[in-house]
Amino acid sequence: MSAQSPEIATALISFTELVGLLQRIFVRHGTSPEVAAILAHNCASAERDGAHSHGVFRIPGYLSTLASGWVNGTAVPTVSDVASGFVRVDAGNGFAQPALAAARALLVSKARSAGIALLAIHNSHHFAALWPDVEPFAEEGLVALSVVNSMTCVVPHGADRPLFGTNPIAFAAPQADGAPIVFDLATSAIAHGDVQIAARKGERLPPGMGVDSLGQPTQDPKAILEGGALLPFGGHKGSALSMMVELLAAALTGGNFSFEFSWADHPGARTPWTGQLLIVIDPSKTAGQNFAERSHELVRQMHAAGLRRLPGDRRHRARAKSLETGIELPVQELNQLQEWAGD
Ligand code: NDP
Ligand code: PYC
């Protein structure tokens, strides 16, 4: 056992052990073994990479959602090959990641033959970080872009009430002699998960993140969560990107807009019932240039210009530490996970 701070006792768990533990939890709370394996790997990867807003912090939300009957934890996605560069998946009111897994081989083969392919997932729930959905494509030499819409909690720039979700955009590109270039960002000024974490810790937020129930600017996370709302990042610019995510992840896929579903009849439900879009590009089709070497050159020039931190660097540092020493979790949290797993 180690100590993160004088107040919080922590323990270390290996990535493989955490995946197994989360897998047992998901199965015990109503998912199929196949869905459990995918969600557990996803959630443990976020914890391993220090992406805490979408790591084990999310488990209570997954469990209350499964218990509420809002999501189908045993759904089997239906994959449709609809055009030369277009794959559609009906996730069957299940999670988005198993839908992606079911369509992945077809998507990659289409991207490699046509140069570009699109995956449109609908009737799906995404409760996770988005980078795990794109990074593996870049690890096999492909460029990937994904968007997913969430639940109404963001006021469009210039509007009076919330309408958009926190609507993240994730991008991954291969890089010669280096980890893929990956960014993953909410189009809100802050992710909803981070507001919940700040509220739990009793911390105030920086200015410009959200408004209270009267529409007044607030730095109190509880005021945002209890009747208030978030703002887009970057004013009208983030708002336009959030609108784009609604169009691509919902209108184009056949999924719900963030404002089109209601949890009211499912107390405990937390997962947005929306859609997700992925675009995968095979850069070997570009003219005469090796894309991965070009992306490495860009990174080299960014460093030469004085840049110290690229998106993804923090995650990779956290990943290396977790894989070397284990993933550090508060003992209380680990005990709770073991109890949920029935260990
Ligand atoms: P952050 O603002 O923490 O980070 C956004 C991106 O910027 C990351 O790629 C991050 O890299 C990078 N970054 C952060 N700080 C710096 C810096 N100083 N210099 C260079 N790069 C930097 O993420 P968000 O709070 O916007 O989103 C958090 C997570 O929430 C995401 O994974 C997102 O997918 C998820 N989310 C999921 C939703 C869903 O519906 N499923 C909805 C909304 C959000 P690094 O990771 O290395 O720090
Ligand atoms: O952090 O904004 C968020 C979020 C919404 C759905 C899943 N994560």
Describe what you observe in this structure:
This protein has 343 residues and is α+β, with helices and mostly antiparallel strands. It has 2 domains: 8-68 and 312-342, Hypothetical Oxidoreductase Yiak, Chain: A, domain 1, CATH 1.10.1530.10; 75-188 and 232-310, Malate/L-lactate/L-sulpholactate dehydrogenase, NADPH binding domain (Ribosomal Protein S8, Chain: A, domain 1). Helices cover 40% and strands 20% of the residues. It contains 11 helices and 13 strands. The protein has helices at residues 15-28, 33-48, 59-68, 96-114, 131-139, 192-201, 221-225, 236-251, 291-304, 313-325, 331-341, and strands spanning 2-3, 9-13, 78-83, 86-95, 116-125, 143-148, 169-173, 181-185, 210-211, 217-218, 229-230, 273-281, 327-330. The strands form 3 sheets. A 7-stranded mixed beta sheet has the order 3-4-5-12-6-7-8, with helices on both faces. Strand 9 (210-211) and strand 10 (217-218) form a beta hairpin. Helix 1 packs across helix 2. The longest helix has 19 residues, at 96-114. The radius of gyration is 20 Å and the shape is globular. The structure holds NADPH dihydro-nicotinamide-adenine-dinucleotide phosphate and pyrrole-2-carboxylate. Residues 51, 53-54, 126-131, 148, 150, 166, 168, 170, 183-186, 190-191, 193-194, 272, 309, 311-315 line the site of NADPH dihydro-nicotinamide-adenine-dinucleotide phosphate. Keywords: NADP, Oxidoreductase. It is an enzyme of class 1 (oxidoreductase).
